[in-house]
Design a protein that fits this description.
By secondary structure, the chain is mainly beta. It has two helices and 21 strands. Strand 5 and strand 6 form a beta hairpin. The N and C termini lie far apart (90 Å).
Length: 280
């Protein structure tokens, strides 16, 4: 009987100790700061750079909306703002390496991050005369841009939408997982790869080759009626709807190949189950 009582007492002490330990973790000031309203902290961080000697802009974020704003000034102005829980407050970090400007949103590493909240946005004002290259990598954040004329634009997104309008670029490279791509009023050579996101491209002029691959995402292309291109659509189970008159080379359940107009540019579309719609 004495042994059983001893074991019971020891187990009781262990349970009480564990309960106290958990309470300390969650309710001391180091890990918990009270109700939700007390755990949230406002963010407003600024950085600024002269455009001189910057020929490359590299942006990396997690869980932040990205808004690229064209301006008539000679400065790149960066404003990171919003709100976040205090223990997981992200920081704006920038550095200039030779002719490259690197902009990053850095998050602390927490081992007891049972509660997290972020509602942040990264606004970047860029002189409209900037015409070199730009690369953006983001996770769980949308990208919006307009009125830029760039040599090269490289966007890599996981779980976020890409929206752009009224711009031009010599080359655009787009990578997206579970995010939609919506570009309008533009002219550019595009290489795009998506997994489950839809692609909608509305051209003001077709002036270069287009190469688009999707797994389950649908593709919608809007071309001017005077466009000339050779269509090569390959699919496993996707369907096609085409408003252009086409001179068909091959047509079947696995795709369509043919010439629209004089067939100057190549428009290559590959899907697994995604549909293709071409409008004029």
């Amino acid at each position: 009987m004495g042994v059983k009582i001893t074991i019971f007492v020891l187990l009781t002490i262990m349970v009480i100790s564990l309960s106290v330990g958990i309470s300390l973790i969650f309710f001391t000031d180091d890990y918990y700061t009270g109700p939700k309203s007390n755990r949230i902290e406002e963010i407003s961080q600024f950085k600024s750079y002269n455009l001189d000697s910057i020929n490359d802009i590299d942006i990396k974020t997690i869980s932040s909306e990205i808004n690229l704003i064209p301006t008539s000034t000679d400065k790149i102005k960066i404003h990171f703002h919003g709100s976040s829980n205090k223990k997981d407050k992200p920081e704006l970090v920038t550095k200039k390496i030779d002719d490259k400007l690197v902009i990053e949103i850095v998050h602390p590493i927490l081992f007891f991050d049972f509660y997290t909240f972020k509602d942040t946005q990264l606004d970047i004002e860029i002189p409209s005369k900037y015409s070199d290259q730009m690369k953006i990598e983001t996770i769980s954040g949308n990208i919006f841009f307009e009125r830029f004329n760039l040599e090269k634009l490289d966007l890599d997104v996981v779980s976020g939408d890409i929206t752009g309008k009224d711009f031009s670029s010599d080359n655009i490279y787009l990578e997206s997982i579970s995010g939609n791509i919506d570009l309008s009023q533009f002219s550019s050579e595009i290489t795009a790869n998506t997994v489950s996101g839809d692609v909608s491209l509305n051209y003001n002029k077709l002036s270069a080759d287009q190469d688009i691959e999707t797994v389950s995402g649908n593709v919608k292309l809007y071309f001017p009626r005077s466009s000339d291109f050779y269509l090569d659509f390959d699919t496993i189970s996707g369907n096609i709807k085409n408003q252009f008159q086409i001179t068909t080379d091959n047509s079947g359940h696995d795709g369509l190949q043919g010439k629209i107009g004089s067939g100057i540019f190549d428009v290559d579309i590959d899907t697994i189950s995604g549909d293709l719609s071409i409008y004029n």
